[in-house]
Amino acid sequence: MFGEVSNSEAPYPFLVELEHLPTAIAQARTREIEFAARLDYWQYLNHPYRNRYREHREAEEKTTQTSWERAHPDQRTWWQKLRMMERTPLYKPMVDRSITFPEFVASPVQRENMLALLGLIEAFGKRHVFEKVELNRELGHFDYARIVLNEIHQNVAPSLYSVSKMLIDQCQSAPARYVP
């Protein structure tokens, strides 16, 4: 019930600054605490790529907009502009445009952490299966990621399933951030 304190063991009883996660991993008292720390570390290690991805998308969108504006110049007469008889052509970002990604190569630290996470997930059994899909995809194990995704597709939100499937089908190992 809401507002009541549970007597159970909390799987992640402390807060750790992101840069101190390797120490937290090394000193983890349980597999659950190690898993929680490694999961946070996985996301932390992917942040620089996400920043690069945003910059890549912004530059790509700027290029697309510039090309569109060159192909659709404002051809109104000065009188039409003065009287506002017609609207200025406006660029609208295309929703269904294909997305490109900057190159991603996992660092040795990232690979080691992802492999350790996979080992922990295997020990947990049926829990954290979507993370298993994503870790395998980021490691480049696309065939195995596809098999696991197809096994669990009934239990995954349709939007997560379609994004993950698209990335696997494109053999794209770039990190993706999923917020439930």
Describe this protein with a few key phrases.
180 residues; mainly alpha; disordered N terminus
Overview of the molecule:
The chain is mainly alpha-helical and 180 residues long. Among the domains are: 16-88, no CATH class; 128-174, no CATH class. It has helices spanning 21-26, 31-71, 78-83, 108-124, 129-138, 142-152, 158-169. The radius of gyration is 23 Å and the shape is elongated. Mean pLDDT is 84; it is low at 1-13.
Q: Layout of SSEs?
A:
Layout: H1 21-26, H2 31-71, H3 78-83, H4 108-124, H5 129-138, H6 142-152, H7 158-169
Helix pairs in contact: 2-4, 4-5, 5-6, 6-7
Tally of helical runs: 7
Shape: elongated
The residue fraction in helices comes out at 55-70%
Query: What is the total tally of β strands?
Result: 0
Which structural class is indicated by helix and strand composition? mainly alpha
Would you list the SSEs in sequence order as H and E? HHHHHHH
What's the gist of this structure?
Helix content is about 55%, strand content about 0%. It is mostly helical and about 180 residues long. It is elongated.
